[in-house]
Amino acid sequence: MKLLHVVGARPNFPKLAPVHRAGVAAGIEQVVVHTGQHYDDAMSDRFFRELGIPAPDINLEVGSGSHAAQTARIIERFEAALLDTQPDWVVVYGDVNSTMAASIVASKLGVKVVHVEAGLRSDDRAMPEEINRLITDRLADLLLTPSHDASERLRAEGEPEHEIVFVGNVMVDSLFHTLPIAADTKFAERHKLDGTHVVVTMHRPSNVDDPERLRAVVKALEEIARDRTVIFPMHPRTSARMREMGLAFERVRALDPIGYPEMLDAVRGAWAVVTDSGGLQEETTALGVPCFTLRDNTERPVTITEGTNVLVKDLGTLADLVKVNAMRGKGSRPEGWDGKAGERVIAALQKASAELREVVHAP
Ligand code: UD1
CB under 6 Å to ligand 1: residues? Predict the structure, then answer.
């Protein structure tokens, strides 16, 4: 069995790492294609080094652009890479443009697609990621889900039972793997984060592209920073919007993007996290840290029903909610968020490949 992993953007990398590691342990031939959707060292290469992923075998260097332009570049360049590589499976992760683009190319060339993190739905098509999720899941031949509600959703959408396999959350594998070395970064110590601090991340177009909304977000974060340290490692999209709109923080401590172990060092002891990231909703649930998500919906409802996540729809309430912090000490870790999901991904692929061989060889 030969696997071709496709990654492109920052949240893909902690998902690839444990699957690749489990693939190496199983002696499977693997090729990593980086589309180049994210390209700055701080958004990409650094994560490969920190997560111990070998440098990509192929980089398509598509760079930034409109959704159509970026997706089109990935489609065109990935087709050539796929024809050259001839894998048995294309492994796609999460919900970024690279995920959808690679699925389209592989499906049309008749190469099997496996989607890691299948079945998540926000039911909000204003989110580009929702469109990526829908198309990827429709096309994928094997749908590996992080939670049981995701499996249920795929069944409800009519996906055949034999294509759906619950494997748990691969990102939690990376979290457990990296946590022991997070303190070595001394990030919390350097920034004097003493457990009363709040960590913020914000990058969704719905929060940062509309000037009125971004102004309201800045105001709400400044309000929290009256009482406690608030650190905000900023995604390049957010810093660009802040600059364009002439906005700046007074009390909130804005930083350049930080690395993965540094982020874990900041988050694990935090009073709370305020975010619009999908990954942080899950990481805070795995760590038992309260998370306030500035969105109207989430494709990860298990972080609310079982974990520590709360959706905040009215920004005016954020500072009070963070002060009261009702989720502190509550929540539990969902099933399969146990550090072994990468191994289950490889096991599911081996089983599906064996079943395919049986079908091919049947009389
Ligand atoms: C992408 C994903 C989003 C994910 C996010 C995580 C899609 C549709 N969106 O959004 O799901 O949550 O990544 O970060 O796939 N930029 C840089 N350096 C980089 C990459 C981007 O400066 O290495 C800047 C560019 O100005 C670019 C902007 O950030 O235009 C946005 O990047 P883009 O990849 O288009 O979308 P993200 O907002 O990062």
Answer: 9-11, 37-40, 43-44, 64, 95-97, 128-129, 203, 235-237, 240
